[in-house]
Amino acid sequence: MIIDSEIKKQLVEAAIHVRNWSYSPYSKYAVGAAILTSSGKVYDGANVENAVFPLTMCAERVAVFNAVSQGELDFEAVAVVTENAGTPCGSCRQVLAEYGLDTLVIIADHHGTIHQEKTVAELLPGAFTPKDLPKS
Ligand code: THU
Q: What is the pLDDT of residues 52-107, one digit of tens each?
């Protein structure tokens, strides 16, 4: 699938929209993510914090788990939106790597300006993937 500028814009807009649902009373750092499947659907997610801080879940993983729990395993691109175009954390990079290293990660700010576009492979060189597990 060609990820043209119109598709990127739509994904960023979806991430901006879902970011409004971020539950981040502790960090006050709202994150929104929207992931495009190869079947053309978009699943989104916002970060969800907890008074037990380590239980916080990042927006990217909420979006991925939302998609995977609907049977979607093939991803083309994911947009991540924060106030300052922060990059996805290591855990989210690893979770994205599970489903493919070619997924495009579009990192944007809350105005919709894209700051970086990188593949998962670029964000997580030498990723551990299902292929690294011994065959049973
Ligand atoms: N956060 C994300 O949602 N995604 C990331 O990749 C980085 C961090 C969230 C977790 C927490 O709610 C807040 O941002 C500050 O770390």
A: 999 999 999 999 999 999 999 999 999 999 999 999 999 999 999 999 999 999 99
Q: What is the pTM of this model?
A: 0.97
What's the CA-to-centroid distance between 136 and ligand 1, angstroms? 35
Q: Which residue has the CA at smallest separation from atom 10 of ligand 1?
A: 58
Q: How far apart are CA 67 and CA 75, in angstroms?
A: 9
Identify the architecture of domain 5-132 in CATH: 3-Layer(aba) Sandwich (3.40)
Q: What b-and-e string marks burial along 2-26, b requiring 16 or more CB atoms within 10 Å of the CB?
A: eeeeebbeebbbbbbebbeebebee
Would you kindly state where each structural domain of the chain is located, as residue ranges?
Answer: 5-132
* DSSP state at residue 134: P
The tokens of 121 are what? 């492979």
Residue 6 bears catalytic tag: no
Q: Looking at the CA of residue 26, tell me the nearest atom of ligand 1.
A: 12
SS3 132: helix
Q: Which residues contact 1 (CB under 8 A, 6 or more apart)?
A: 38, 76
Cα-only R_g, the chain: 14
